[in-house]
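pipeline/complex-builder :: batch 7 item 3
reading input block
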Amino acid sequence: MGGELESFIQNILQNAEKEAQRILEEARQEARRIIEEAEQRARREAEKRAKEIIESERSRIFDEELRKIRREKAELKGKILEKLRNKLREEIKTKVRTSIEEINYGDILYRLIREAVLELGVDKLIISANPRDLEFIKSRLRDIKRKIKEDIGVDIDITFGDKIDVIGGIIARTPSGDKVYNATLDALVEQAISKNITKIARRLGLISQNRFRRLIHKLFSKINRPLEIEDSGGNKVVLHPCKNIYLITTEHGRIDLVCEADNTITLVYATLGRATAKKIEEFTSIVNSQFVDKNPQKVFIAFSGSDKESEGLLRKNNILLLTKKELFRIDREINAGIFE
Amino acid sequence: MSIAIAIRVAMAEKKAKEIIRKAEEEARKIIENAKVQGRSIVSERYILQLVNEFVEKYRKKLERQIEKLELRYDEEFERLTLISDEELNEVVETLVEVVLSGR
């Protein structure tokens, strides 16, 4: 009886211990759940906020980078145009100063005066020019007036205004000063640049790479007959009219132009820069993966030319090279008016 | 059953109840502590610390994206730095004609 009682009591206590362990285990599980849930909530909230912060930072940095890139490009372009402007002014100055006879500067001055008379529509003009041109006009005033009378039937009365610091040409004004016609060579230089800025930019490659590739598409789409040309290495190449033109872009690289003609496929890679091993490898890799059995004609357009090493690599891969020179020749041959 | 036995059983039951009560008390404390810890985890200070860690992680990705962005523009820069005097002179030659001929 004593043993049974002991066993009974032990059983009560053991059950209580087990129950206590169960309660504690449940509590620990619940505690873990509470903490995990809190951690997940905190993580979700932190990720959400971090994404917002980084997204706003991304936009800010990208915008800043783009602005920086655009600004640097614009500055470089500005410097190039400034250099062009200075060269043009110097060239004109030299021509006017040293070879008046050769370029018939007297005729040019006469033309500018006649344009001023026509433009202002008056018979009295005050002409300002640099000291040299002013003297030149004064010395030939009688001839100029006679010629204007003959050419446009205006009996013009010309008087002389201030001497001005310009490379050449004239500024004409009416006596009342209400109308002014600026035909200085300085102004004409500015006009020539601004009127021809698109052509200048295309000839010098002062365009975005996307614009350049669009122009290449345009050029190839204007080929309307088989066009035999020589590439930069003197290899003969025939460009056929494209029936279908498209581009291919993959994560590994790009083909800027696929020209499907009747019996040929021409693949073109176009860069404003120079041909480099990296660009050539990018081109050959995508050509080999996409056009392996089609025996395409491969053309590499490098607006800025190439070096010997790249030329060797192009030859080895049977790729024709067109530089700016050949592009301009194609443009002339088909009268495309894109680069020339 | 003798009184002595009844008393011993009652004492054992009392002890068992006490064991369970202590366990329940301990469990309550565990949960209470977890709640306190949970509140501290979702506290602003801790979240901000996590935010900084995530931002640091994302920023590295962002830097890689920016490097790529710069590369995209290399070709245009390349061209802009390659324009030679000879090329400018060719354009100048054409423009001299334009200026002097009035075309």
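note: The CA atoms of residues 88 and 94 of chain B lie 10 Å apart.
queue -> next item
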